[in-house]
Design a protein that fits this description.
Layout lengths: L2 E5 L10 H10 L4 E4 L6 H15 L6 E4 L2 H7 L3 E4 L6 H7 L4 E6 L2 H7 L6 E4 L16 H11 L4 E4 L7 H6 L4 E4 L1 H4 L4 H13 L1
Parallel strand pairs: 1-2, 1-8, 2-3, 3-4, 4-5, 5-6, 6-7, 7-8
Length: 203
């Protein structure tokens, strides 16, 4: 899970279609796309996921579904990202044996428990306070991210307040990847914004 990863938020796309923003991000170098839909019913969620899966296939960019294992199974998504209150990771792994599985960690207890979880990466959430992550227990900060990096056996993907001003520091603190929402979705030019984030993350 190295690189910059787009996490979708249709409400931040400034009137553009989700497909338009996703395609621009991929052209800008996004390493994966995580489809996050908190309020969408199952059928439109599956239909949207199927459209994005087809859009991403020629680019060989994986589609990761946030929370919804059923949607991931329905469209053959490459991965699923779960939170602490979602289906247990061992069950997800049994149902999706070859998938990319991510797990959000919001407390140090989460990090410790995650050592034994069959996941591919930890989503460190949030690194910085952000309006797109309102249901968490406080921000980790760069010191918290570095502490997790020193302890955890899993690759880390940082999320929350990651933008052009913070992304280089996130990489220096030990994140293998950075998940970005508003800095791409709300950008005037999402392709250019993603490309710059990729460059800064690698610098």
């Amino acid at each position: 899970m190295n690189g910059v990863h787009l996490v979708t938020d249709r409400g931040l796309c400034r009137g553009r279609s989700l497909e338009e923003v996703v395609l621009a991000a991929v052209r800008g170098g996004a390493a994966s796309v995580q489809l996050r839909e908190k309020d969408l019913a199952t059928r439109p969620f599956v239909e949207e996921a199927a459209r994005l899966k087809a859009l991403l296939a020629p680019w060989k960019v994986p589609l990761i579904i946030n929370d919804r294992l059923d949607v991931a199974l329905a469209v053959g998504a490459e991965g699923v990202h779960v939170g602490q209150q979602d289906m247990p990771c061992a069950t997800v792994r049994r149902l999706l044996p070859g998938a990319i599985i991510g797990l959000s960690v919001e407390t140090w207890e989460d990090v410790v428990r995650a050592q034994d979880e069959p996941v591919d990466y930890l989503g460190v959430s949030p690194v910085f306070a952000t309006p797109t992550k309102t249901d968490t227990r406080g921000a980790w900060g760069l010191e918290g991210l570095a502490r997790i990096r020193a302890y955890s056996r899993h690759p880390l993907v940082a999320i929350g307040g990651v933008n052009r001003e913070t992304i280089a520091a996130v990489a220096q603190a030990g994140a293998h990847g950075a998940a970005v929402v508003s800095a791409i979705c709300s950008a005037e030019d999402p392709e250019k914004a993603c490309g710059e984030l990729v460059r800064l993350f690698r610098s």
